[in-house]
Amino acid sequence: MKRSIVLLALLALLATSLFAAGQKDGGEIVIGANIYSFADNFMNGVMKPELERYAASKGARIEIVDSEGQQAKLNDQVDVFITRKVSVLAINLVDPASASAIIAKAKAAGIPLILFNKEPTERGVMASYDKVWYVGTNSAESGIIQGQMMVADWRANPSWDKNGDGVVQYVMLKGEPGHPDAEARTLESVKAFTDAGIKVEQLALEADPNWSTQHGNDKMAAWLTSAFASRIELVICNNDGMAFGAINALKAAKVKLPIYSVDALDQALTHIADGELNGTVLNDGVNQSRATLDLAINAAMGKANVVEGTQWTITTDGTKAVRVPYLPVTPKNYQEFRK
Ligand code: GAL
Ligand code: CA
């Protein structure tokens, strides 16, 4: 009797230590994950809950830590996950130019790595490890879709050209400098106008590493009291979070201007319903979360083909990426995106 209790206790101890170490033979896959900042509306509001829900539905354990916008903090968090022998890493870079350090750590430990949402900008870095993949979008696509919406609406609303000069006088809330999404959106949305033969004039452009509502509000409020305030004809926002702030500032100043963004958060759909936002672009965080975990789980199980048995395909252009498509969200179709 006594002996069997001791044996049971030993077995239980063994099981918990396997569990803690995240061993595959323990039956459970443990995913060490982070979000670059829990203060980010899209990452915290869309991706994090779906990562948690989907991992649970797959019987995997995920731990998601907050990197608080500090790459150094993320580097330390990755070290801790590696010491604890997680089965796989799912990492949202803080600095898109710092992937090589994380990849080197994962490679040295022999742990597979899925990078998601923020695509590495260092050339050729994905080729440095056979067990690293990227899950995100085609950044340019969001700017192209947003641009096409704006061009169509601009043409349909001649009164938007307030000074009648045929030129779009715009202000832009950019988001994080160096972030592939921010950079591509900034270029492509404006290029849609010039490609359509419509001239543009940038009155102001403001970057914000946090993509935040507070910043969007403060910047828009400042622009609305600037020397060029009355010349603004269009507000381009590279994400919903900043647009929410800009909408707030516009309302406070009792100014109505066309305004567009990207992400299609629930609050954005409400602003479209209320006629306060002219359009956004669905950044499909739900499917990006699912793809991240489908790849992570396959990689943790040691499958040679990480998209085996999934709906995803990996690009063959050297970026080793799964790219989830963007979709236009307008006053005509926004209802379809309501949950
Ligand atoms: C973008 C998203 C932004 C912000 C950023 C963080 O894809 O549109 O709202 O969340 O990622 O990396
Ligand atoms: Ca004009």
What does this structure look like?
- The chain has 2 domains: 8-137 and 284-324, Rossmann fold; 140-283, 3-Layer(aba) Sandwich (Rossmann fold).
- 42% of the residues lie in helices and 17% in strands.
- The chain has 10 helices and 12 strands.
- It has helices spanning 2-21, 41-57, 71-83, 99-109, 139-156, 180-195, 213-223, 240-252, 266-273, 285-300, and strands spanning 30-35, 61-66, 88-91, 113-116, 132-136, 167-175, 199-207, 234-237, 259-260, 280-282, 321-323, 327-329.
- Strands 2-1-3-4-5-11 form a 6-stranded parallel β-sheet, sandwiched between helices.
- Bound molecules: beta-D-galactopyranose and calcium ion.
Task: Using the alpha-carbon principal axes, give the shape.
Answer: elongated
Termini separation comes to: 56 Å
Mean pLDDT: 94
Quick one: how many beta strands?
Answer: 12
Proportion in β-strands: 15-25%
Helix content: 40-55%
Question: Count of helices?
Answer: 10
Order the strands across the largest sheet as they lie in space: 2-1-3-4-5-11
CATH topology of the largest domain: Rossmann fold
Distinct compounds present: beta-D-galactopyranose, calcium ion
